[in-house]
């Protein structure tokens, strides 16, 4: 299928394409490995988390990976952390939600597509009413991909945290609706929280330095294999669990 232009007015064609788009797994592995040579994140795990994560991956359970959002550098440091952690085994089988503007430039779009990107049309960029139908379609597509066995990585805060990098900001209900819809399709996603810290920063509104980005701290929480029934309860669980992981990332920096 020909790649459609990622525009809000083209939303049906966009999500028809990303419903079936398959990334090149070998290329994805190469890209993640390259980023792991540029960045050297510190990886830590909660007690029992590494073994539990290894087990659910071996069982081929789809992962719903939640990461706090601090910087425009995050996609690169997260990719490096994936390569240097137990997530290496699922590289090429995880979709990543990314804001639509990142798909505008052809070269960048090819990279994002190769890394499993799915565009998100955000209300803060286009207006809440304008993106409502697109958001519903996006959540359906994500749920269907999870039901097919793919993982999904999400920054559930929706935007960079420029308030307090040590505190998870409000989590929207979207991640809860995706998990809820995936379960209605017969999938049982496993929540994996990845706390991210670039260390103490005097001004969270300023991007981390290159050195801070290169040495980010990531902390994995214990995977949660049984999620609540309601989307709002899932979203609340995500925020609570992600805060625990973020505390671990800050402590390990």
TrEMBL record:
Top-rank taxon, per record: Bacteria
BP term (GO), one: phosphatidic acid biosynthetic process
Keyword set, alphabetical order: Acyltransferase, Transferase
InterPro entries cross-referenced by the UniProt entry: Plipid/glycerol_acylTrfase
Pfam family, one: Acyltransferase
Phospholipid/glycerol acyltransferase domain segment(s): 63-199
Keyword match Zinc: no
An example Gene Ontology molecular-function term: 1-acylglycerol-3-phosphate O-acyltransferase activity
Protein name from the UniProt record: 1-acyl-sn-glycerol-3-phosphate acyltransferase
């Amino acid at each position: 299928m020909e790649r459609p232009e990622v525009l809000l007015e083209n939303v049906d064609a966009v999500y028809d394409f990303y419903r079936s788009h398959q990334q090149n797994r070998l290329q994805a592995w190469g890209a993640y490995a390259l980023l792991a040579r540029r960045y050297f994140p510190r990886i830590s795990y909660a007690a029992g988390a590494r073994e539990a994560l290894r087990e659910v991956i071996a069982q081929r359970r789809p992962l719903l990976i939640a990461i706090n959002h601090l910087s425009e550098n995050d996609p690169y440091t997260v990719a490096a952390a994936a390569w240097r952690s137990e997530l290496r085994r699922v590289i090429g089988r995880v979709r990543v939600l990314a804001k639509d503007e990142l798909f505008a430039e052809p070269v960048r779009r090819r990279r994002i597509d190769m890394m499993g990107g799915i565009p998100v049309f955000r209300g803060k960029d286009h207006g809440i009413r304008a993106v409502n139908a697109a958001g519903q379609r996006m959540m359906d597509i994500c749920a269907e991909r999870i039901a097919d066995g793919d993982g999904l990585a999400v920054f559930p805060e929706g935007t960079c945290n420029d308030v307090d990098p040590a505190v998870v900001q409000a989590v929207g209900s979207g991640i809860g609706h995706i998990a809820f819809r995936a379960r209605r399709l017969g999938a049982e996603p496993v929540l994996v929280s990845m706390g991210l810290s670039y260390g103490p920063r005097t001004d969270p509104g300023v991007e981390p330095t290159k050195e801070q980005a290169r040495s980010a701290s990531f902390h994995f929480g214990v995977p949660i294999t049984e999620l609540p029934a309601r989307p709002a309860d899932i979203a609340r669980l995500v925020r609570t669990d992600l805060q625990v992981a973020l505390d671990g990332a800050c402590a390990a920096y």
